[in-house]
Design brief:
Shape: elongated
Strand content: 5-15%
Order of helices and strands: HEHHEHHHEHEHHEHEHH
Radius of gyration: 25 Å
Structural class: alpha/beta
Helix content: 55-70%
Largest sheet: 4 strands, mixed
């Protein structure tokens, strides 16, 4: 009953049942028996959308194992999740084989977009729908610009394993159409300039900082 209440079979292309051992098989048999007994037409008509797969546990992290199985991926190749997992895996491979075509972090990705170089952009939904207005506007603007320039955009759910993986590399990443080997050097130059400007302080400022700290420690 819960499946029929919460799953819209007109929109859902695939339902994965994953578990260790035979739990998934027993559950699937139970679903079939109950659907036949109650004559649940939506389930009966869409049972081909169920895919059974092996997982080492019932925890979310086990989904990474499921999506790394090429047999499973071939069965769900047309789904949104499969495309997201596919492009993220391609990004990870690109870092190894051609790092000049794979960048992450807002600053690097924005510069690549300025060069009209982005083929695929990945952003977590947490950044794209951030409660911080400035952050949200920055990522919405980036997404719109990439789309206008002909790039593919993928908004990855932070609840999904692929979204969590993307969060580990800043939450935004891009695969480029062509290599940009100078992109790292440009960013390093900017950071160097910024560091130099930070160090160019007057004697008054240098003396004022410890004084301010002392006053704060004293309760002023």
């Amino acid at each position: 009953r819960a499946i029929l209440q919460h799953i819209d079979f007109d929109k859902v292309k695939c339902i994965l049942l994953a578990s260790p051992g035979y739990v998934k098989d027993d559950f699937y048999k139970y679903l079939q028996a109950e659907a036949a007994r109650r004559d649940d037409r939506p389930y009966i008509e869409n049972k081909s959308k169920f895919v059974l797969c092996k997982a080492s546990s019932g925890h979310k992290h086990a989904l990474e194992e499921v999506f790394s199985d090429p047999d499973i991926m071939s069965q769900i190749t047309e789904t949104k999740v499969a495309k997201e997992v596919g492009v993220l895996n391609k990004f990870m491979r690109m870092i190894d084989i051609c790092p000049e075509k794979a960048f992450y972090g807002f600053k690097h990705v924005s510069k690549a977009n300025e060069e009209l170089a982005i083929e695929s952009l990945m952003v977590t939904d947490e950044l794209f729908r951030s409660s911080d207005i400035k952050t949200r506007k920055s990522y919405v603007s980036l997404v719109e610009s990439v789309r206008e320039n002909g790039g593919q955009v993928y908004i990855l759910s932070s609840m999904h394993e692929s979204g969590k993986q993307l969060q580990q590399v800043s939450g935004v990443a891009a695969i480029l159409r062509y290599p940009l080997p100078d992109l790292d050097e440009e960013s390093e130059d900017e950071e160097s300039d910024s560091d130099e400007s930070d160090h160019e302080k007057t004697d008054a400022e240098l003396h004022a900082e410890p004084l301010a700290d002392d006053l704060q420690n004293m309760g002023f």
